[in-house]
Sequence to fold (140 residues):
Amino acid sequence: MLESLAQFDPLKTERLRLAGGDLLLRDRCAVYPVLFSMKGLRTITISRCKNVSKIFGWLDDIDMCPKLEELVVDARADGEKLDTQNMIQMAVTRAKMLLKLKSIRIVSRDNFVQTRALKFKEYVPHVECSPRVALVRRCR
Fold:
């Protein structure tokens, strides 16, 4: 993955898709410093990753992805439970820092996750949570 990331300028990257792998290798994985340098990132799509909730703590930092508008999470990883509490806390923190997300889309069949997703509507204008949410939107 890092080899792929080395082929483009992270400052100009607007969309990033993390697919597969473990976001928690020791304390921080190799994704953290790359993600930190992506100041123009607008959309993050995360699918089939373990320890997805780790990224929500990273996004609480005012310097982490300041232009982020959309977060898409496929919560169907093998045996993983989506940590909705950390995800909601991240949305609240970003809203307080005036880095409010415009959209959160969650792919999940879990009724608990779908119910908790309603909480996001207080902080994020567009929220989708269902087993049929599209991971990738077509370019406008």
